[in-house]
Each structure stands twice: as structure tokens, then as C-alpha cells.
């Protein structure tokens, strides 16, 4: 049996991420052999965030605060959380969220969700939509939203 400790398990960062989004993480699904649920543990140094404000069109996401006091932005505004707090981000615009660290100490959170073959994520602040092929990066696309097009637009 493979295990990961939520309090002490190792995380790693990607230095190519821009300042403000340099969270360290550990993706537990692949590590533990999961197929239907995903979980990622994030460590957020002061001033960093998990990712931009977004919502999912196919995955419900849950947050568990492991350590520190993260700030969560939702459509209702910003809320400071504390260790032990649990939050659910439902599918669609009402589940929009951004998890960041506005404090002086490192924050550790776990985010988990159901998983689908494709993830569709909308970023309201930047007017983008990400389509993620979960098993093949060649299927990933980030596109700018545009006015609704007719189904037949551009077809012959």
C-alpha cells in the first residue's frame, strides 16, 4: 500500500511558473494509483496562489486546509480560512475560486475532485477557457472566449 502524509509529505515547485503562482505541489492520484478521484497537496509560500481565479464545468472540487490561513476568493468575496476548514466548489460559475496566501507563513492545503477524461475550466478574469486532455497533453488547449458563434460559422 502506498501512502502520503498530508502534514509532511514532500512537494515540489515549478520555477517556470510566474511570480504569484509558485505553489509547490504533490499530485497524489498518480502516486497512489487512483483512477476516479484526484488530490493535490499544495504548499503556498507568502504571496503565492494555487492558480488564477477559475471554475470547472465538469469537476466538483473540495478544499481541506491542512496548515496556515489561506485566503479563498469566491463569487461572494474573499474569506480567510483556518486549519481544519473544508470548502466545496461546485461545478459551474458558482464554484469559481482562487486559493492564495496573503499571510506571512506557509499555507498547506489539499484539493481533491472527481476526474473526467477532459477537464473544462473557465477563467473569468482573463476571459479564457482551458480544455485539458487528462491523459495526453497534445489535447490541451487554452483559448480566448469570444462572442457566441453560430454552429455553422466557418463551415462549408
Structure description:
The structure is a single chain. This protein has one helix at 28-32, and strands at 12-13, 24-27, 37-44, 55-56, 61-67, 71-74, 77-80, 86-89, 98-100, 107-114, 118-123, 128-133, 141-144. It is mainly beta. It has a domain at 12-116: Jelly Rolls (Sandwich). It has a six-stranded antiparallel sheet. The radius of gyration is 17 Å and the shape is globular. The model has no long low-confidence stretch (mean pLDDT 91).
Topology of this structure?
Elements: E1 12-13, E2 24-27, H1 28-32, E3 37-44, E4 55-56, E5 61-67, E6 71-74, E7 77-80, E8 86-89, E9 98-100, E10 107-114, E11 118-123, E12 128-133, E13 141-144
Antiparallel strand pairs: 1-2, 2-3, 3-10, 4-11, 5-8, 5-10, 6-7, 6-9, 11-12, 12-13
Keywords:
4-stranded antiparallel sheet; 1 helix; Jelly Rolls; 156 residues; 3% helix; mainly beta
The CATH superfamily of the domain at 12-116 turns out to be: Jelly Rolls
**What is the overall number of helices?**
1
What would the CATH topology of the domain at 12-116 be?
A: Jelly Rolls
How far do the termini sit from each other? 56 Å
Overall CATH class of the domain at 12-116:
Mainly Beta
* Derived structural class: mainly beta
Biggest beta sheet attributes: 6 strands, antiparallel
Major β-sheet strand ordering? 1-2-3-10-5-8
Uncertain residue ranges: none
Mean pLDDT equals: 91
The helicity comes to under 10%
Proper CATH architecture of the domain at 12-116: Sandwich
Taking Cα atoms only, what radius of gyration do you get, to the nearest Å?
17 Å
The beta-strand count equals 13
Residues in β-strands, percent: 35-45%
Shape: globular
What is the N-to-C succession of helices and strands? EEHEEEEEEEEEEE
Amino acid at each position: 500500500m502506498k501512502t502520503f502524509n498530508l502534514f509532511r509529505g514532500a512537494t515540489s515547485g515549478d520555477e517556470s511558473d510566474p511570480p504569484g503562482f509558485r505553489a509547490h505541489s504533490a499530485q497524489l492520484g498518480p502516486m497512489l494509483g487512483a483512477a476516479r478521484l484526484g488530490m493535490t497537496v499544495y504548499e503556498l509560500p507568502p504571496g503565492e496562489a494555487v492558480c488564477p481565479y477559475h471554475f470547472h464545468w465538469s469537476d466538483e472540487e473540495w478544499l481541506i486546509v491542512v496548515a496556515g490561513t489561506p485566503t479563498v476568493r469566491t463569487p461572494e468575496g474573499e474569506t480567510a480560512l483556518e486549519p481544519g476548514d473544508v470548502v466545496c466548489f461546485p461545478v459551474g460559475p458558482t464554484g469559481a475560486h482562487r486559493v492564495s496566501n496573503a499571510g506571512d507563513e506557509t499555507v498547506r492545503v489539499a484539493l481533491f475532485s472527481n476526474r473526467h477524461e477532459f477537464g473544462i475550466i473557465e477563467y473569468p478574469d482573463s476571459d479564457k477557457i482551458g480544455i485539458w486532455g487528462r491523459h495526453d497533453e497534445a489535447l490541451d488547449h487554452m483559448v480566448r472566449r469570444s462572442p457566441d458563434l453560430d454552429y455553422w460559422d466557418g463551415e462549408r
